[in-house]
Write a structure and sequence with these properties.
The chain has 77 residues and is an alpha+beta fold. It is built from four helices and three strands, in the order H-E-H-H-E-E-H. A hairpin with a 2-residue loop joins strand 2 (55-58) and strand 3 (61-64). Helix 2 packs across helix 3 (39-51). The radius of gyration is 11 Å and the shape is globular.
């Protein structure tokens, strides 16, 4: 089971990196390095976020959806 804080960390990292569309998508390897997790673990988190509608993937890169951006923005406001 994936710990909720790791999911939040990945989402916040994508938000901080402005990974908000396919042109700004971040490679899974880079994301894993930035958040300090194994690529396999990040891939698992991304798969879960994809099911929830929070990220899109293109090849081996990931970016937030507008749904995720709204959710993250509501946390900070």
């Amino acid at each position: 089971m994936i710990h909720e804080s790791k999911i939040r960390t990945v989402m916040q990292a994508l938000h901080s990196l402005a990974a908000i569309d396919r042109e700004r998508a971040v490679k899974l390897e880079d994301l894993a390095r930035i958040v300090g997790l194994r690529v396999e673990e990040v891939r698992s988190i991304v798969d879960k976020l994809k099911v929830l509608g929070y990220v899109n993937t293109i090849n081996d890169s990931v970016h937030l959806t507008s749904t995720a951006i709204i959710k993250l923005s509501s946390i900070y406001c």
